[in-house]
């Protein structure tokens, strides 16, 4: 009896380790932050080429939705000595109406413009970019050649893959915690 309970508790411990381990999973060479995975490389691209590159990796060009995410990316760019990176938003269809991958209907999920931006310089600044000096954003010409790419994907899909591969842990779901905090078997 005691041995059986011990065995089950061990199972639960293994399950907890399993959940903790899996919840932090991004494919190798992707940076993890929150529930997302981020990928950079050392090649500068136009905005369209960057978008196609990320699409090919099963992700999207980075869209920053919170100041907290902005600070993470700001740090990432600084660490990698990258001056500019594209964000997956543009106003190329209608001047002044910004559209992002994840939130096409309602404009920018966050606004973090640098001073005097957006200025639609020369009438051709239609793609969004973040600068590593202060983490602020500018509209930029979509075809400039000095901007780096950051791709983003959720880690949820990747979690699912691993859960399927290790399904032997699933019987644990019938264990609950009692009101006294003890495991109820
Ligand atoms: C990019 O360049 C930096 C500095 O030269 C290097 O440390 C890093 O490994 C490179 N990253 C990739 C993905 O090639
Ligand atoms: C940047 O480098 C610092 C110092 O090594 C590190 O603490 C931080 O986690 C790094 N940030 C990112 C986003 O990689
Ligand atoms: Ca514009
Ligand atoms: Ca501009």
Describe the fold and architecture.
- The chain folds into two domains: 1-25 and 158-185; 27-154, Roll (Mannose-Binding Protein A, Chain A).
- Helix content is 30%, strand content 25%.
- The longest helix is centred in the first third of the chain and has 22 residues, at 2-23.
- It is of the alpha+beta class and 185 residues long.
- It binds 2-acetamido-2-deoxy-beta-D-glucopyranose (2 copies) and calcium ion (2 copies).
- Residues 117-119, 121, 125, 138-140 line the site of one calcium ion.
Give the key terms:
about 180 residues, alpha+beta, Mannose-Binding Protein A, Chain A, 2 domains, four-stranded antiparallel sheet, globular, binds 2-acetamido-2-deoxy-beta-D-glucopyranose, binds calcium ion, C-type_lectin_CS, disulfide bond, CTDL_fold
